[in-house]
Design brief:
By secondary structure, this protein is of the alpha+beta class. The protein is 32% helix and 23% strand. It has two domains: 86 residues, no CATH class; 255 residues, Penicillin V Acylase, Chain A, CATH 3.60.60. It contains nine helices and 15 strands.
Length: 373
């Protein structure tokens, strides 16, 4: 196990924007989890405390524990559908951090229970849009709550599982799934929520489903095939990108369709764009209490507006990693919930991670990181 701050190969760390923490782990699922939990036990407790504090604000005089216990009870309904290696890894995290398994499970499936993050934006560009024709992926991950703590606690995990492809996951302490990551074969992904009528508690939770695909899929075709065969829980637009191709999987709990680039460009936000999935569009959720975002941020109109803005910013442009970083920082794309912003080059095995001190992080500097170089 190696745990260190990762500084840029070209520039010294900026005092106001500390370098990204990197945790390198290898071994069996139980070993991965135990080492993860041991390394990040204090930070896992910080995340649990943030959730308890929020629930206490919601419950007024009732305290946080009744609501927390209810969420853990609901989270356990996913347990039989989670692949055994990931159950083992979460068990290892809990034991290593000396916290309850329910806490780790809840951290990994909270989005599947709430499904209230409809503000993410992503693009993939290649062919005529990039100098050498290879594809780049850029994404903003926007969250409705816990934004400051999510920015502070961000970790880049470099995982070498005993079975499966090594992978990088930009996530948080206690988090075993992948919502922003890339494997050593050069398949990158970005998870975006999509409001869907087709939801279920009887499927693999989203980020764990995507972790499974990154470990097993050395090509977009292989990853997509696995995902389309695996029952899920909620709606997602999953952007996949490799050195020479890209695809969006528009997913619901039981259905899915692949959308391909048009002339080398692929854009996605939080609504289905395909005719096949259009009948499954669901209502966007209301703004949760105490969110730093406005009610407008929780509408399909905002998703459509961001898509239009992505079209404007990419029209006729030569897209480099630096140009994509500027697009992700644009006020029409970023918002007060932008807690993750990253650009991937699957061909170069590099990523650039925004290190803004507060949301939207994409308006801060980006740190270049070479993976498996």
């Amino acid at each position: 196990m190696r745990f260190r701050a990762l500084s840029s190969p070209e520039k010294p760390p900026i005092t106001a924007h500390p370098p990204l923490r990197l945790l390198e782990l290898s071994g069996t699922p139980r070993e991965l989890g135990r080492r993860h939990g041991q390394a990040l036990a204090p930070e896992i407790r910080v995340l649990r405390r943030a959730l308890l504090t929020y629930l206490a604000r919601l419950s007024l005089y009732g305290g946080a524990l009744p609501l927390y216990s209810l969420l853990v009870f609901l989270a356990r309904r996913f347990w039989p559908y989670i692949p055994f290696p990931l159950r083992e890894e979460m068990t290892g995290v809990a034991r290593g951090a000396e916290v309850g398994l329910g806490t780790i499970l809840l951290l990994n499936v909270l989005d599947d229970l709430a499904n209230n993050s409809p503000r993410c934006s992503a693009l993939a560009a290649g062919e005529k849009y990039t100098g050498d024709g290879s594809f780049l992926l850029g994404r903003n991950l926007d969250y409705p709550l816990f934004t400051d703590v999510m920015v502070r606690q961000q970790v880049l995990f470099l995982l070498e599982p005993a079975q499966g492809l090594p992978l990088a996951s930009l996530a948080w302490p206690g988090y075993v799934g992948v919502c922003t990551g890339m494997n050593r074969a050069g398949v990158a992904l970005a998870q975006l929520s999509a409001m869907s009528l087709d939801r279920s508690l009887q499927g693999v939770p989203a980020a764990l489903r995507f972790r499974q695909a990154l470990e097993a899929g050395s090509t977009i075709k292989a990853a997509a095939s696995l995902l389309l065969q695996t029952p899920g829980t909620i709606g997602n637009n999953l952007l996949l990108c490799s050195p020479r191709e890209a695809a969006v999987l528009e997913l619901s709990a039981r259905q899915g369709v692949i959308r391909h680039p048009e002339a080398g460009l692929l854009l996605t936000t939080n609504h289905y764009q395909s005719q096949v999935m259009a009948p499954l569009k669901g209502r966007f959720p209301p703004r949760p209490p105490f969110s730093p975002l406005s009610s407008y941020h929780f509408t399909e109109a905002y998703s459509q507006t961001r898509l239009s803005r992505l079209e404007e910013l990419t029209a006729g442009a030569r897209l480099t990693p630096g140009k994509i970083q500027k697009i992700l920082a644009d006020p029409g794309i970023a918002n007060p919930g932008t807690v993750v912003s990253a650009v991937f080059s699957p061909y170069a095995k590099k990523m650039w991670v925004a290190r803004g001190a507060r949301p939207p992080v994409s308006q801060g500097p980006f740190q270049e990181i070479s993976l498996w170089g």
